[in-house]
Amino acid sequence: MFDELNDLYQQVILDHCRKPRNFHELPAASRSAQGHNPLCGDQLKLFLALDGDTIEDISFVGSGCCISKASASLLTEFAKGKTKADVEKMFGRVHEMVTTGKIEGDVGKLAVFAGVHKYPARVKCAILSWHAVMAALHGEVQPVTTENEQT
Amino acid sequence: MSVSKNVDWLALRKDFPILDQQVHGQPLIYFDNAATSQKPRVVIEALQHYYECDNANVHRGIHELSNRATSAYEAGRARAARFINARTAEEIVFTRGTTEGINLVASSWGAKNLKSGDVILLTEMEHHSNLVPWQLLAQRTGAKITYVPITGDEGILDLSKLDSLLTRQVKIFSMVHISNSLGTVNPVADLCARARKLGITTLVDGAQSAGHMPVDVQAIGCDFFVFSGHKICGPTGIGVLWGRQELLDAMPPYQGGGEMILSVEYQKTEFKKAPHRFEAGTPDISGPIGLHAAMDYLDAIGRDRIWKHDQELANYAYEKLAALKNIRLFGPKTGRAGLVSFLLNDVHAHDVVTLADQAGVALRGGHHCTQPLMHRLGVESTARASFYFYNTKAEVDRFAEVVKEIQKFFGQ
């Protein structure tokens, strides 16, 4: 019945949604940021343990739809061991990919989110954790929201 | 025998051109009626006729078209009065919708009648439109807001607390008639009677009731009643505020401008009486004309019959969903209005709605503009199917099948 949806709910996404990775608090965190998607009620909190500009460890907790949970889970897998500049660069690529479907450069496993652009209402779900990680890296204390995201 | 047997419900579907289409290759099943209803051809034609034949600005016009537009606009007001059994058409104020109606009362009546220490009584199941205007008023005046609590997931008002909440400090009790998130039908006539004994002014939010059941504001015994046109087969952008004449006449203007004045000088203005006092500027003229056609259409079917049909569908859907595993249902088990709110275990409402959409079923998922209620229930959102008279049991069957498939998709 839902064959058309395989683009959106790829197996990797379903897997990370059911069994999110790095899904716990992080006592050693030096930074954290909250992401809130008021439309859906998605609430995420990201924890980062930074060593200079390098993300030594990263985790998240919260509740949300399949897309937002899988996005946060895959983000934490990607970001572990990366630098602030790496994550910023990938944010740009992911943002472009989920809003237009275009993949520029190597996005690795995150390519599973390319199908999201066909579902305008769900772009916010995919990008929420990325806004939160950017806020954490920039030391912003206010929770981020996707309400102003143009989709 | 059910009253609904007297109506050929399937034939009525032909009055709604929009229903005859496929979405994602599947026949459209429109179950988002609590958000907005579809429009029958007679309403679309009334709008078209107005713009093709009668369009002109209303009131003060001397020419023929203006006379026609004015008389059609005011005929809409008289029709709205009959629709809810108001005493006179002068008690009908046209607004943009339910939200503006409540804002008007909170701003105008509230500013004049509330002071620091007074209490605004609401219920825990209110839509944001019946919460935020009162919070703004409370901030301006120093009044406090208290809430009639609900029981758990069944979402019925816990009236055992009402006596202790209906204190002398309460100046207004504003309540929803039918909850858009739960389907609860509140005993508004009883609540208004109890408030009236204490001299408390009452407002009933009829957004979900006006087009779905017979409404008689005099029988309800409220002081204000508000509803929207677009949820009752009318156009968007038009709504009705009904208020008792003596209350409306004593209220200061809401907005200033043309149409609402008797005379204007550089330093002062004399205002018209209600309802024109509250209709500043060129109004939505086509709105009441389309709404008039919608009200005629609904009452030709009979709102008592529509109500029975709504309830039959809702009960049928509730039973079908209740038979599934791993599902949580919200709202009363019996006596519910025409909607069902639910959550599948471990599946977010937006995932449910995205999948249902793929199968042609239009649901709504989210907080339904009742965030405090969602938090009270301990959830972030629900998925909701809401029905109207053009929906069928066959559509509910298909919807229940789709929900089962969604559960399978997510491995339940």
The CATH class designation of the largest domain in chain B is Alpha Beta
Please state the CA-atom Rg of chain B, rounded to the nearest Å. Answer: 22 Å
Main-sheet strand order of chain B equals 4-10-9-8-7-5-6
Instruction: Output mean pLDDT of chain B.
Output: 96
What is the CATH H-level superfamily of the largest domain in chain B?
Answer: Type I PLP-dependent aspartate aminotransferase-like (Major domain)
State the share of residues found in helices of chain A, binned by percent.
25-40%
Written as H for each helix and E for each strand, in order along the chain, the element string of chain A is HEEEHHHE
Number of domains of chain B: 2
Which class best fits the helix and strand makeup of chain A?
alpha+beta
Oligomer: heterodimer
What CATH calls the topology of the largest domain in chain B is: Aspartate Aminotransferase, domain 2
Identify the overall geometry of chain B.
globular
Average pLDDT of chain A, rounded to a whole number, is 91
Task: Please tag this protein with its features.
heterodimer; A: 151 residues; Sufe protein. Chain: A; 4 strands; B: 412 residues; alpha/beta; Aspartate Aminotransferase, domain 2; seven-stranded mixed beta sheet; four-stranded antiparallel beta sheet; 14 helices; 39% helix; globular
Describe this structure in words.
The complex is a heterodimer of chains A (151) and B (412). Helix content of chain A is 36%, strand content 19%. The model of chain A has no long low-confidence stretch (mean pLDDT 91). In chain A, a hairpin with a 2-residue loop joins strand 2 (42-51) and strand 3 (54-63). A four-stranded mixed sheet of chain A has the order 3-2-1-4, covered by helices on one side. The longest helix of chain A is centred in the middle third of the chain and has 17 residues, at 84-100. Chain A has a single domain, classed as Alpha-Beta Complex (Sufe protein. Chain: A), CATH 3.90.1010.10. Chain A has 151 residues and is α+β, with helices and mostly antiparallel strands. Chain B has two domains: 3-30 and 302-409, Aspartate Aminotransferase, domain 1, CATH 3.90.1150.10; 44-299, Type I PLP-dependent aspartate aminotransferase-like (Major domain) (Aspartate Aminotransferase, domain 2). Chain B has helices at residues 9-13, 41-54, 64-83, 98-113, 132-141, 162-165, 188-197, 217-220, 245-250, 286-301, 303-322, 349-358, 371-377, 393-409; strands at 22-23, 26-27, 29-30, 92-95, 119-123, 144-148, 170-176, 201-205, 224-228, 239-243, 261-264, 269-271, 327-330, 339-344, 361-362, 364-366, 382-386. In chain B, strand 7, helix 7 (188-197) and strand 8 form a beta-alpha-beta unit. Chain B is globular.
